[in-house]
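2 proteins. here.
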Amino acid sequence: MLKSIYQNNISIRYENLNATLYQLPNGKAVIQFENHAIDEIILSHSELEQALALGQLHFISKKESPKGEIKLTPKQKVEQERRNAYVNAVREQSEPNSKNVGGLKKRKAIIANVAELIGDNNPPSPSTLGVWCQNENEKSLGAAHDIIAPNRRKRSPKFDDEVQLSMLEAIDEQLAGNLIDKINLTELHRLLAKKITALNKPIHVPSYSYVKKTFKKLIWKILPRSGIKATELKALARNVIRKFKVKFPLERVEADGIYLQVGIVDENGNYLGGGVTIIFIIDVKTRVILGYSARVGRGETSSLVIQAIRHALCPKAEGSFHTKKGNHWSYYGLFSCFVADGGTAFTSIETSSFLMRMCGTLTKTLPVAAGWLKPFIERFNLTLRIKFAKKMPGYVGPMEDQMQLEFSMKDNAVLTFEEFKQRLERWIVDDYHHTPHSGIKGLTPDESWQESLDSGWRPELPPNYEQIALPCGKVRFAAISGDKKGSFHLGVQVENIRYNDMNARLKDIARHLTSVGEKPIVRCEYDDIDVSKISVLDPRTDEYFIVPTVDADIEEGMTREAHQAELKVIKDRMSRPAPDSFSDDEDSDKLKAKLAAKNSGKKHSRQRDAIPDDYLEAVNKQSESNSYTPPKSFSSQSLSDLSSPLDDIEDDDGIFESD
C-alpha cells in the first residue's frame, strides 16, 4: 500500500520539522511535532494534499539505520547482489511499498526461478528468504543487513556488579554527606577500597585513576570539555552536585528501567517469554520506592512508564501488595521534578501528556550524547540485581553471561508472572525499605520518610486524582459498530479485543455523531498492562469514561502478553487433529464397496414417509391464509422504529476475530 495522508500514526516531515500525523474523525488530521514546544496543528485532507504538492510535507521511512562507518568487502558485495535478486523477485510480485513477504508456495516458486536464472547452487530456504524480505522492509541496508552490519557485542565492564555498586555507594555517600561543594576523589577512592574489602571476596580494588575516570563519566560529561578555566569548571561541578541536594521528599524523583533475565511461564507451565522489564520510581530524599510496573519481555513502553507513575502517585491500599511481615507501603504523592533518561518511553507524547495532566511537570532528561547522572536509581538497580535477582529461581544472569551457559531462560523458567511480582514486592516492602542506607545517614528508607512526616511535611494527591485510574498510554481511533445499519450495539474493537458499556453510552455517542453528519468514530486510550478496559473520549462533553471488555475470559489486570499467550494456547488446541474411527475401518470399506456393486445402475426409490408434493402445497396455502395481521393501532412503520431488546444484547459474531 502506498503511503498516504489518510493513514493514521505515520511519521512525516512538515515545514522541515519532524512530526507524526494522526487522523481525526471529522475528515481532518492533526500534526503533532516531536518538539513539544511547538503547538500541534489541524489541517484538512485537501490542505495536506496541497502541502504535499508544494514540497512542504514529506513521508519519513521507519527503517532502522546502521551506526558507524559501513565498508563492503568484495565477498560481501557479491552476497548482497545474490540476496537482492531473490528479494527483488518477491517485491515485483507485490504491491508498491508492500511489506508482504509472500506465502510459502510463492516463495518456493520464486527461489526455484531465481536460482536457475542466476545459477545459484545454494539457494536459500523459504524461511531464510522471509527474513531477507523482512530486513528489506525494516533495515536501511536491506536483505544484507546481517552480513554488512553484524551485531557486535559490547565490551564487558572491567569490574563486576558488586564493584560498580560499591562505587555508586561511595559517590552516594559523598553527595549526601558533609562535602556539599565538592567531591574529594581521594576520599572517594578510600571509601571504595573500604567497601570492597568488607565484601570478603577476592576482588581487586580499582586504582585511583579508574575511580577518577568513572566519576568523570558520571558527572563531568554534562560539563563543557574545553574552552573553560579550571576555576570555572570547579564552580560548574559544584552546581551539578548541588542539584542533588533536596530538602523534602518528592522534590526530585528518578525513574529508570531494568531488564532481568528470568523466564516466565503460565499456570499450566507454558513458556510465556524470556525476561521481565521493570520500571522503578525512587524518591531522592528518602530513597523509598514510590512505585513500579512490570511486563514480560524486553522493551520499555509508554504504557509501562505511565503505570509506574500512576503507582507512585497513588496510596497503596492494604492487600494490594504482598508482604510476609505485615509492613506498609505508605509512600506516595505528587512530585515536582521527574528525572529519567532520553528513552522514547519516558519522552513520548503519551508519557509527557500524562505527567503534565497529573503533576504539571515534564520529564527532565539529559542532552543528547551525554551520560545522565542518576546515581540513586542506578544504585537501586544494582542492589536489586545483586540482592534480589541473583536469588530468584530461574535467573540466568546478564545477557553476556547467558550466552556462555549451556542453558537458557526458557530451560529454567519456573515462575509465573504473579509469583515473580509477589517475590519482588515482598523484597521491596519487607527488605529494602527496612535496610539501613549509607546515603541517608544510616537510616532506613522507611525511617527517613517517617522523619520527614514528623517534621510536618505531608504528601499531596494530584488535583485531578479522580482521572488517574483511566487507562492511557496508547491511542486508537475506533469505529462504533453493529451487525446492522444504525444499531451500534457491538461497541468498539481495539487490537482484536471488543469493548462495550452496559449503559449504552457508546451507542448514544454513535447516534449523536451520525445525526450531525459525522462518522461514529471515537478516540480510545488504552495500555498493555491491563487490557480489561479502555478509556473513551465523549465528544459531547470532552470527558473520558471507562469501557470494559465483553470478553469474559479477560480478567481485570490481565496484560496483553498474557492474553496473547492464552489465544496461542487455544489456537494450538484447535489445531489438534480430530479423531476419525472410520479412517482405518477395513470392514466398513469392504461393505460399502459390496453395496455399491449391488446397487450399480439402480435408481433411488422414494421413502415411504416422504411428504407428497400436494401435501406441501396445501400446507403453504393454509399458512398464507393464517398469516398474522398487526393491530390497527400499530403501523408497520412504527414497528420498525421500535428498538428491539435484542439490540442491547452482545452478539458473539464480530467479537472474536482471527489474528
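next one coming up
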Amino acid sequence: QSRGFEGEMVSNSRIDGLNAVDSTSYGIEQFDNITVLNGLAGALYGPQVPGGIFEYNDKRPTDDFLNRLSLGFGSDSIVTEAGDFGGRIGNDGWFGYRINLAHGDGSGPYTDSHLDRNLASGAFDIHFSDKTVLQLDTSSYHFDQRGYPGIFIYNSGGNTVLPSARSSTQTGYGQPYGGMDLDTKTHLAKLTHDFNEDWHLTIGALHQVADRYLPVISNNFTNNSGAYTATLGQNSISRFTVNSNLAYLTGKFDTGSLENDVTLGTNGYDEQRAYGHTPTSVTLGSSNYYASSFLPEKPWGPNPGFGNPPLQTRNEQQSLIAGDTLHFNAQWAVMGVISDSYLSTRNFSRTGQQTSDYQVHDAFSPTVSLIYTPSDTDTFYLTYASSEQPGDTAPENALNANDTLAPYRSKQYELGYKTQIDGITLGSALFNMQRAYALVDTDDVYRVAGEQRNNGLEVSAAGNLTSNLTLYGGFTWLDATLVNTHNPATDDKRVVGVPHLQSSLLLDYNLPTLPRTVSAWAFSIGLHQTSNRAATITNNSYAAGYATVDLGTRMSFSLDKHPLIVRLALNNATNTHYWASVYPGSVNGGTASDTAALGAPRTWQASVELDL
C-alpha cells in the first residue's frame, strides 16, 4: 500500500524498471534496494492504480572481487546460509557478474510450522564498449511455508465485528498442512547505450512465470463471539505469466535560453493468469478464536499449479510516453509528462471459451509539475496528475465473478517541499487523491459504487544528527474517506484498513570508543506506530492502534584480515499483539467480506557475515 491505496498485481510493481508480478514471493538476497514512488505515476509508467510504484533493483556486479558468506539463525529455528559473489573478468573487466545463493530451512515460530526457501540469482554485465552495456539477470526462487497463522475473514453475515488482536502463536490459528508453495522464475535483459554525455538509450524485456499452490488457511468468523469455520485453500489463480518491455530515449538540448530534459519512450506488458484449484476450498471444521485447536486435514484434490492450468484472464497494456522538463533559469522549471495507452482484457472459462472482454485506445494520463529551487538545498513543487487505470476483477462471491470492470480514472494534487539542514534531508508533501471505488453492491453485483478521497500529509527525515548518530524516520497523516455511495451505511465513512496516523523512526548509534579487537560497533532501535483502522466499510468495528519496538546491534571485526560482521536483532521486543493487516477483499475497496492478519510475535535473529 501507499497513501491508503493498494497496488495492483502487476501494474504497480517492477524489477529494474520492468513490470513484474507482486502476488508471489522474492528472495531479498538478490536485491540491492527497493524504491517506492508514492502517489499517482500513470504518466510515467502507463495505467496503474494510485498505490505507488514499488521497484526492486537487482544487485549489480562489483568492480572489486566479492566473496561473501553468511550464516543466520533465529528463535524460529530457521537456519539460513547465503553466498554473495561478484567481480569483473576479461580485458578491462568487460564481463561483470553478481551471483547470490540462499537456502533457509527449519521450524517457524508457530507450533508445527516449517519454512523452506531456495534462491539462485545471477546478474551479468557485458561491456561491448565504454558506451554500450548489456545487462542479463536471471533468478529462481522457491518458497514453501506451512503451519503459519491463517487469515481471518469477517463481516460476511453473522460476524460484523473484528475482535481484539491476540498472540499469533495461538495453536489452531494455522494448520500444519496449510500454507503456500510458490515458485518464481524471472529473466530480464536491458541494453543501455550512451550516444554522448547528453543522450542515452535503454531497451529492456522481462519474462516471468510465477506458479502458486496455495493451501491457505482461512478462518471465517460466523458470529461476534469468536466462532469460526476454517477452510483450506483459496487458490483462484495458480500461475502468473508476465512479459514486459521498455524502451526510453533521454536527452538534453537548449532552445534559446531554455534548457530541456526530454524523455521519449514506451513500456508495457502482457499478463496471463491461469485458473487455480477446483473446488476453490474445502471446509476443515469449526473452532473458536478464544479456544482454537488443530483440525484434521481433508483431501483437496491435485495441485493445479506447476503444470499447464487453463487460462483465466489475459491483460495487455502498452504506453507511449513523452516528457520534458523545461528549465527557465536556475530557480524555475516546469515538468510535463503524458502517456497514451492501449489496454485490453479478455476473460475465459475453464473450457477455454472467452466470456468477456474490453479494449481501450488512447487512454491519456498527464502529469505537470511547477518546480521552484530558490537555493541548492531547497526545492518546492506543485503537481497535478491524472491517470487512467485498468478496471478491477469481480471476486468469487459476486454474481459477475471474474468479470473485469471498464477502466476508470484517478486524480492527484500535491504540494511538496524538500530541504537539507546540517546533513539531514527533510521532505514534506501535502496531497489530495481521488479514485473510483468498486464493491459487491446490495444486489451482489460488483460495480463502481462511490469514490475514495484521500487527503494526507507526509513528512520524512534522514541523515546524521551527530557524527555517531543517524536518523531515518517520518510520519503520514491520512484521511481516507468513501463518498458518493448513495448509501447512508457507507457514505462518508473511513476506508477499511487505512490508519489516520502512521509513523516510523530508526536510530542507529555507532560507539565512538571501541575495544581493541572491534573495528566498529553499532546499536539500533526502531519504533513503529499505527493508529486505529476501520475494520468494516460501515465503520461499526475498528482494529486498535498499536506500537512495536525493534532492537539491534552489529559488530565488525577483522578475522585474519578478512572483514567479519556479527548481527543480533530482537523484533517486536515488547511482544505486542496486533492486527498487522486489515484490508478489504479487493484492491479497489469493499466486497462482501474483509480480511485481517495477525502480526508476528517477538523473535530474535543472529547472523555472521564473512568476506573472503
